[in-house]
Every structure is written in structure tokens, then in C-alpha cells.
Amino acid sequence: MTAAPSPIRRSTREAQIVAAARRIVEEEGGALTMRRLAAELGIQAPSLYKHFRTKHAVEVALIEQGLLELGAALHGALSGRGRGGMVPRLLTAYRTAAVGNPALYRLATSGPFPRAELPPGLEDWAGEPFLLATGDPCRAQALFSLAHGLVVLEIDDRFPPGSDLRRTWDAGAAAFAS
Amino acid sequence: MTAAPSPIRRSTREAQIVAAARRIVEEEGGALTMRRLAAELGIQAPSLYKHFRTKHAVEVALIEQGLLELGAALHGALSGRGRGGMVPRLLTAYRTAAVGNPALYRLATSGPFPRAELPPGLEDWAGEPFLLATGDPCRAQALFSLAHGLVVLEIDDRFPPGSDLRRTWDAGAAAFAS
DNA sequence: TGACGTAGCTACCAGCGTTAGCTACCGTGG
DNA sequence: CCACGGTAGCTAACGCTGGTAGCTACGTCA
């Protein structure tokens, strides 16, 4: 298992801003705007631009947090050697981490991926458990796509009402447990 | 195979507006705004509200079009009885239809699903091919999630550069080919 | 003391969805 | 023939968005 990449260094004020942004994003129905973020910190919106060049930069900082936590959860699920195969354990951990933080997950996975602005190696490290569970890069990507599709459809509430999501996840795991 | 549901009836002017909206959405990098949409029609933005109550209503009309076309493509792929199993044919058709109209696909599948505002039966009809290809509702939802995950990750360009997507789709199809 | 960087402020900009209120046209009934 | 109502356009405006310019107060260091 590769070591987790080190997060980007931030000043204390920057860390406070990211923490406030996270509070807003996790709060139900809270859209992240620069004015709301500033209000949460007791300052005016333009002052935020002394610390982050754009709103996108704030979002990237949140994405970095989310990927670190998701990666840690996935690696933990595989190293924990609980009962069941690697694929079901991986999917369970993925679902728990993502659905537990739906807004953060959506933020981190919608729109183009800010690969260049993230710590090098973070993406590979977070995705490594899929490679470990499948043994093949293409199968790993397919399994990841399945997990991602299941999560986004679940948190966007797109499955028809009355769906048995537990069994749907099981069916997905069964397909990839060879 | 169930018959395709009939689309919602629209006045000619409404149809023109939806067509213009589609033109904008399909044009590369074109975000749909009421002012742009109005300009495309040679009128002012507030006039659009004589025909559609909100911007969301225009989007729903586009979603209806997208679902009808996607459903037709999927049903066609299964009834065509080409070579290969049902699952690979279904996934190929899904990928082709979605990636060919990325902006429309994203519009139709991001955010909450406007189930109540769409023609009754449309959702079930468009999803029916997944049931036909798998024979089980939960497996169908899982396969659909896989296809959706693959598509959104592909059109958002989130796979690491150099990925062999052809083989990734094949790996997904193989997992679900019983 | 003077210079410089930090971190706040107010005032403002263009663009967004949307509303209010007005106007011109067009078909129909008295 | 003329008034009525519906249709479909218009301008002006509101409150929100991300973002910029330019000012100010404060702390540090030569």
C-alpha cells in the first residue's frame, strides 16, 4: 500500500476558511457562495480573495479533503480484513463514505477534475484500492464507475421510489466478485 | 416491449424554443441561459416566460427529448439482434447515445430527477432495456449505474489520461455478462 | 522613521433568473 | 364597426452570483 500523499500546506486563516466552507457544504441545502462563506467567518466577501484566488480554489481545497478521507476509508476497508471478499468490503466503504457526505461527494466528483491543482499522487492513491480489489486496471476503472454511478444516482434520488438499494449494491458487488 | 410513451403536446412557439435551447446546449461550451436562449430566437429574455413558467420547465422539455431518444436507441440495440450478447450491445448503444450528446446527457442526469413533470411511463420505458438484458430488477439497476458512471466519468474527462476506455467498457460488460 | 506586506473594508461591475407593468396585434361577439 | 379578451412581445427593475479596484489600518523590520 502506497503512503497517503501529504496535503497542501495552508496558513491558519486559509484553514479556517476551508473549515467554514465545509460547514456550509455539509449543512442541508447549503449552497456555497462567497458571500455566505464570508458571513460564516464574520467578514465581507471580497476579503476572501486575499486568501484564495477564486471560488474554484476554495472548492479544490474541499475536494482535496474529500479525496483524502475517501481514500483513507477505502484503504482501511481493504486492510481491515473483515469477513467477505474485497469487492463487497470496498463497495460498502465507498457507499458509506460518499452517502455520509453527499454534498462534499458531489462537489468532488461533478464537473471537470482539477487534476493539476491537487497534490500529485492523490488521485492514484485514492483509487488504488480498486486496483487492489480487482487486480486489473480496466476492471478497476469499471468497478469504480459502478460505485460512482450507484452513489450519484442514490444521492440525487434518481432511483425509482421503493427501490431496494441494498440489493442493487449487492448485485453490483456480485457482478465483480469473480 | 412496451410502446414508447407519447411526448407532451406543445405549441409551435414552444417547440421552437425547445429547439433553440437544444441548439445552444449542443453547441460546444454553450451554457443555457434565458438571455442566450432569447437571443437565439431574436426576442428578449422575459418574453420566454410567456411560454415557459421557469427555466427549469425548458430544461425538463429537453430532458424529455433526451430520454425519448436514449430509450429508442436502447430498445433498438436489443431488438436489432446483432452479434454479441444483450449486455454488450446495450452498453455500446448507451455509450454512443450519451457521449454523442454530452451536454444533453448531463442536463438529463444531473441534479434531482423531475419525475413528476415528465410523461408518465417515460422513465420505466427508457430503463426497460436494462431489465430485458439482465432479467432482474436489482441487476438492472446495477448495470444502469455502471453505464451511467462510465458515461459521466468519460464526458467529464475524469479518467486518468491515457486510459483505455474501450477495454474499461468491455470489462464492465464482461462483469455483467452472465 | 519609513517601507512593506497582510487583511480587512466599501463601491462597483456584468451576468443570472425572474417579476411587474405596459403595448401592439388579432380574432370574435354584439 | 367597435369593444373585449387573449397572445406575445417590450422595458425597467430586483436580488442574487463571482469577481475587481482602490482605499485603510496594523504589524514587522531595516
Structural write-up:
The structure is a homodimer of 178-residue chains. With 178 residues, chain A is mainly alpha-helical. Chain A has one domain: Tetracycline Repressor, domain 2, CATH 1.10.357. Helices cover 65% and strands 0% of the residues of chain A. Chain A has 8 helices and no strands. In chain A, helix 3 crosses helix 5 and helix 6 (122-134) crosses helix 7 (137-155). The radius of gyration of chain A is 18 Å and the shape is globular. The two termini of chain A are 22 Å apart. The first copy, chain A, binds a DNA duplex (30 and 30 nucleotides) through loops.
Give the arrangement of secondary structure elements:
The structure is a homodimer of 178-residue chains.
Chain A: H1 12-26, H2 34-41, H3 55-79, H4 86-100, H5 102-109, H6 122-134, H7 137-155, H8 165-176
Helix pairs in contact in A: 1-2, 1-3, 3-4, 3-5, 3-6, 4-7, 4-8, 6-7, 7-8
Chain A binds a DNA duplex (30 and 30 nucleotides) through residues 13, 33-35, 43-47, 49-51, 54-55.
Q: Tags for this entry?
A:
178 residues; mainly alpha; homodimer; DNA-binding; 0% strand; Tetracycline Repressor, domain 2
Task: Explain briefly what this protein structure is.
The structure is a homodimer of 178-residue chains. Chain A is mainly alpha-helical.
